[in-house]
Amino acid sequence: MALKSFTFIMVSAFLMASSNFGVSAAFTGGRKALVPAAAPALSPDADYGFVPLNTKDPNVVGLAKFALDEYNKISNGKLVFTALFEAILVDTAQGTAYRFVIAATDLSNQLNDYDAKVLVQKDSKKLVFFKENQ
């Protein structure tokens, strides 16, 4: 009987302390996870450091094709550009980074999409990342 009372008191104390600090307890799979009571709302007018780009802009498509061509050179690949799904510009300390989601076909005409990142500096551009999405 004393154990049940002690357990009840401990759980009650935990729940009261959690509510005082704006945290709720989520019990999943026998483990306790502390989750914020309310996430801050994102403002549509705020600057989050990235800019979505027009995927039909010839300059943006040209950079995406550059990423694919560089990957083909490095890996002896034979990917053929098909479409640009997403393009995002991010200003970094190293220069301007462009992130792309590119659709391309391989030699067997298998269509896949790829993530790519190109870093553009004053007078150079470099493929930083290229990977097939799973």
Features:
five-stranded antiparallel β-sheet; two-stranded antiparallel sheet; 134 residues; 7 strands; single chain; globular; alpha+beta; 2 helices
Question: How is this structure best described in words?
Answer:
This is Cysteine proteinase inhibitor 4. Keywords: Protease inhibitor, Signal, Thiol protease inhibitor. One of its GO terms (molecular function) is cysteine-type endopeptidase inhibitor activity. This protein has 134 residues and is of the alpha+beta class. Helices cover 28% and strands 43% of the residues. The protein has two helices and seven strands. The strands form two sheets. The chain has a five-stranded antiparallel sheet, with helices on one face. A two-stranded antiparallel ribbon has the order 1-2. A hairpin with a 2-residue loop joins β1 and β2. It is globular, with a radius of gyration of 25 Å.
Strand fraction: 35-45%
Shape: globular
Number of strands: 7
Mean pLDDT: 79
Give me the strand/helix succession: HEEEHEEEE
Number of helices: 2
Could you name the ranges where pLDDT drops below 50 across 5 or more consecutive residues? Answer: 1-6, 17-30
Distance between the termini: 55 Å
Q: Describe the largest sheet.
A: 5 strands, antiparallel
Calculate Rg over CA atoms. 25 Å
**How much helix, percentage-wise, in residues?**
25-40%
Summing up helix and strand content along with how strands pair, one would put the structural category as alpha+beta
Strands ordered across the widest β-sheet: 3-4-5-6-7
Pfam family, one: SQAPI
Organism: Sesamum radiatum (Black benniseed)
Signal peptide: 1-25
Keywords: Protease inhibitor, Signal, Thiol protease inhibitor
